[in-house]
Design a protein that fits this description.
Radius of gyration: 14 Å
Number of strands: 5
Shape: globular
Helix content: 25-40%
Number of helices: 3
Mean pLDDT: 86
Order of helices and strands: EHHEEHEE
Length: 129
């Protein structure tokens, strides 16, 4: 599932709603909650550090797989450079990728064919024993 959202901070709650609505009933509730947080961080980073795709938009996607969920956020920029930033406890920001790294089994950046990049994160479906 893919949706284009405006290249704006206001797209954070919009994308969360689209994601939660799209995943409800298909994915365990704790994974939906984690996915909503991860997609929020990825969109905030795209708006703060990226560039818009043509049409002044971002592309948000998710793919429900047998063992987990893959989230993607594409923008017209070049993606995170150098991985997780080095931030201090006193810093007001810069912790978004720490959250993504903590919640996702894996994540990364890949260039798009035409312009921009896509940040992806994979969240597993964990089975309690």
């Amino acid at each position: 599932m893919f949706d284009d959202v405006p290249y704006a901070v206001s797209s954070v709650p919009l994308a969360r709603r689209l994601l939660v609505r799209g995943l409800s009933g298909q994915v365990p509730a704790p994974v939906v909650e984690d996915a909503a947080l991860v997609v929020s961080e990825l969109i905030a980073n795209a708006v703060r550090h990226g560039a818009p795709l043509p049409g002044n938009s971002l592309r948000v996607g998710w793919d429900v797989r047998q063992d987990g969920l893959r989230l993607t956020v594409a923008d017209g920029g070049c993606g995170p450079q150098g991985g997780i930033p080095d931030v201090s406890l006193e810093s007001e920001g810069g912790r978004g990728l720490f959250l993504v790294d903590a919640l996702a089994a894996s994540w990364g950046v890949q260039p798009l064919e035409s312009v921009g990049s896509q940040v992806w994160a994979e969240l597993p479906f964990l089975v309690s024993a």
